[in-house]
Structure formats: structure tokens, C-alpha cells
Amino acid sequence: MDKITINITIADRPYRLTITRGDEEVLRKVAVTINEQLKQYAERYAYKDRQDLLAMVAIQYATSSLKNESELAFRDIHLTEKLETLDQLLSAHLTD
After folding, report:
1. What is the pLDDT of residues 9-36, one digit of tens each?
2. Domain tally, the chain
């Protein structure tokens, strides 16, 4: 894959990343989203340092990620069950 080096800033700290060209847009959006969340938390809550805000953002996104994984697993199980039932019905009608 075509690798490029980009610089993104999160919480006023620059990070130099080597990534595939196709990931650039997503990573830049991620940096913007994280910085927006940091700003919102800073406006809403008292904090002692930026580390507290980063921890809150990390908790928010980790929770969201785990919920999404759980929902996808649930959907996959039900979809598989429905497809198996449909396959059985179709197989029964084809053999008649």
C-alpha cells in the first residue's frame, strides 16, 4: 500500500503518523472529532488538566465501540438464524 506521513494535532499536541493514503481522510476527521469533544467537555466540566478530558473522551468512545460491537454480534446471530430458516424452507420446496 501507498504510505504517507501526516501530522495531526490532538489536545494541542502534534502527532506524526505514517498511514496508508486511504486512511488519511478518516484520521483527520477523527482528530477533529476528538478535539471537538475535548472542547465540549472543557466547557461543561471543571477539570484539573487536559488528561482528565482525554480520559473522558476515551471512555465515551470505548463505550460506544463496545455497544456497537455487541449490537453487531446480536444482529449477526439473528441474521444467521433467519437465513438458515429461509434456506431450510427453500430447500424443502425445491425437493418437493
Report:
1. 999 999 999 999 999 999 999 999 999 9
2. 1
Could you tell me how many residues make up the chain? 96
H helix runs in 5-49, sequence order: 24-44
How much of the chain is helix, strand and coil, in % rounded to 5?
A: 75, 15, 10
23 backbone φψ class: left, alpha, beta (φ>0; ψ -120 to 50): alpha
E strand or H helix at 21: none
Domain around 61 = 3-95
pLDDT at 49: 85
| Residue 37 and residue 54 in contact, taking contact as beta carbons nearer than 8 Å | no
